[in-house]
Each structure stands twice: as structure tokens, then as C-alpha cells.
Amino acid sequence: MKIVMAKPGLDGHDRGAKVIARALRDGGHEVVYTGLRRTPEEISRIVMDEDATALGLSTLSGAHDVLVPRICELLRESGMGHVMVFLGGIIPERDHGKMFLEGVRAIFGPGSKTEDILAFLEKSESRIEKNLPIGVFNDDGWHWN
Amino acid sequence: MTWKEKLLQSALEGSRRDLSRLLTMIEKGEELAMSKGEENHDYMILGITGPPGVGKSTLVGRIISYWKDRGKKVAVLAIDPSSPRTGGALLGDRVRMDSANSGEGVFVRSLSTRGNPGGISASLMAMSKLLASCGWEKIIIETVGSGQSEIKIVAFADKIVLVDGPDRGDIIQAEKAGIIELADLVVVNKSDVPSALKVAENIRSAFSFSNENDSPEVLLVSAERNDGIEEMMQLIQSSESPLWRSRIKIRERLLSLWDHRLMSSPMLNQVIDDIETGSISLEDGLDILSGWKNE
What we know:
Chain A is built from 5 helices and 5 strands, in the order E-H-E-H-E-H-E-H-E-H. By secondary structure, chain A is α/β, with parallel strands linked by helices. Chain A has a 5-stranded parallel sheet, sandwiched between helices. Chain B starts with a helix and ends in a 5-residue tail after the last helix. Chain B is α/β, with parallel strands linked by helices. Chain B has a 7-stranded parallel sheet with strand order 4-2-5-1-6-7-8, with helices on both faces. Chain B folds into 2 domains: 33 residues, no CATH class; 205 residues, 3-Layer(aba) Sandwich (Rossmann fold). Chains A and B meet through helix 1, strand 2 and helix 2 of A and helix 2, strand 3 and strand 4 of B.
């Protein structure tokens, strides 16, 4: 699967994002890493140029509340509603429901196992094969956790 | 009109989304039927290659800015190797190209070799053509490597720049193997590191042994400090390929197309099986494979 790993917003810590990128590569995926401090507009354009199937967002700043809905909206607006979005970093439990409503399909907080993320991607691939939705158009409300 | 034709039309009319989809189709090995008239006449394909870690992506970032500032639309195809064990790839060139994210006039696609560095050349050629048709005036192909197969990948580029860095000396190795002949310009990056000067001198003196007085220029730059970039761009634009270099390039293009055609033959596995069991010879196998043409 072609996956864009992005760091939206202003926090400057990408150790986590890099570890995940590496783990996904070892799991046989093609991972494009964007580097730090990308705006929602930049991220949406990168996903378009790369024609990625999935977008992993890592945020530690607490701004996911604003950034994630904006990115999902941009994807939908620019004809990329099929792109699957998953989150990592610090996303408080109480915000999970809201993120899933935006179309996010999985949230991996601190302590997540890379095997778990790979299993999630495998599940998503099998959903693609069965023509079930995984994108930010949240048709059937499926999410991983 | 088929779905593919619709995509093509919409991409030609400027849809970035559909252009990107078509690139994926080419990457997967599909062929696009484009009529001659659809090709944009005023475009340039620039190949940037060199060993890992010499600063190619940072340099490409500078080239993007240079052209962007002059109102050009710039597209980049950045190729990274994929892991031979898992097939996965980490494509991180964007991290060092800040200008890659700077707006509508810059298009960047990261690609992995999918374990077949030789075979990617044909799809890169098709991708560049498509980008040119869609109005992208400057097309940069960035590949890792100092080996023969990696330089071959960019043999179809109009201009080829070979990048080296201090404490590498890879280009001198390349010179021994004769493959440096494809380069129009040699750039030694990280000129702020004292040993870069020595590397540049070594390369120049290696060239001076050859009888040709039209060996490529050797230029010191610092992509990090934006030093020497103007001069590099002027040399890229002004360097004329001598006739013999154009001929080598055409030869390499033929070879990569030939490789591609053999490797994409549907009979390939059958032929390998037959050679293995001894029912046909290598020459027979080659005859079977080369007789096949993708119509």
C-alpha cells in the first residue's frame, strides 16, 4: 500500500512518525514521509501528487481537533474521499469519537504495537478487495479501534 | 471514450488529480496511447544522479526554487530503492526539498524501484512524456546510485548531472568504468567542507587523462548554503552534448527499452522453465522473447 506519513501543525517531534514509517516499510509498504510542520493544504496536495491509498497523521501538539477535520475536508473536496486516514501521537480518549466521525479509521496512541498497525493495514487491504469503504467518506462507520 | 481516455483528457486539461492517477497506471505497467500532437514542445528533462548521501535531494530543492522563481512549472520524479527483502520502501526525498511543497506550480512524485532498477526506465520515460504533455515545463528525475544501471535509468534525459560529495570518490570509480561519459555536468556538492575541493580536483585530473577535450565541466556547489546554484543552472542550460554523447545516450535508451521489452514478455517464465529443463537453448529463448511485441 502506498502511504503518506505526515506531521501536520507546529510540533517538532517526529521520532514516533519515523519509527512507524520504518515499521511500515519493513511490513512491505511504500511510505512517503513529508517531514515536519506541514499545513493541511500541503498534506492534501502531497497525497494527491503521490496518489496514496492511505494517510497517517502524527500529532503531539493537541491541535488534532482543528487539523484533522480540516485535512479530511480537503481530501473530500479534492476528490480524494477514498483515501484512508489514521492517526498517531497524543489524541485524548474523549476526542476519539469525534475523530472517527470525521472519517478517521484508526487511532494509535503511545504504547501501540507496530504489529497492530500492520494488522490494521492488512484488514484495510482486505476491505478494499471486498469493495468496502475505508476512505474519509465515512459510509459504514467502520473503524479499527 | 474509455475511462482511461477520459482521465487523459482531463489531465491534459489540467486536472492534477487525474494526472496523478495516470502516473500510477504507468507505474503499474499500463501503456497510454498519446497522439503526437499532444506533446508539449517546450520542455526539458533533467536527470540528477549520484551516490547516496551526497545531497541530491537538497540540490533538487534548490533547482525547483530556481525554476519556480522564473515562473516555470516544475515536476519531480524522485526514485528511491525498495527493500529487496520485503518490497517495502521509505521515500524520504520530500523531507529535504522544502520548495517541493510550495504550491500549484510544483509537482513531486516519489517512486520506488520495486526491486527492478533497470525496468523502471521505460515507465519513467512514459511518465515524463505525460507530464510534458500536461504542461509541466521542467521535469527532474532524481535517482540514487553510482552504478551503471542507475545512470542508465536517466539516459533518456535531455541533460544529466552527476553529483558527488566530499570523501566519496565514487565518481572516480565511475570514471574507471567509463559510465561517466553519459554526464553533461559533474557537480561536487558540500563545497563548504574543505575536502570537497580535493574531490573536484581529483575528478578534473581523471578527466584530463582522456583524449577528448569535451569532457564535462566539474563544478563545486553548496546546496545547503545556496552557493554556486546560479552558475550550475547556467551550465546546465548552456552545455551542448557533443555528438558522441548523444549517440551513447541513444544506445543506452535502446538497451533499456530492450531490457524492458524482454522483462515484460508474458512468455518470460515459460522461457526460463524451458531453458532450465534443457528443452531450448539460451539463443532459442532470446529469439522467442524478442519476437514478442506489446501491441
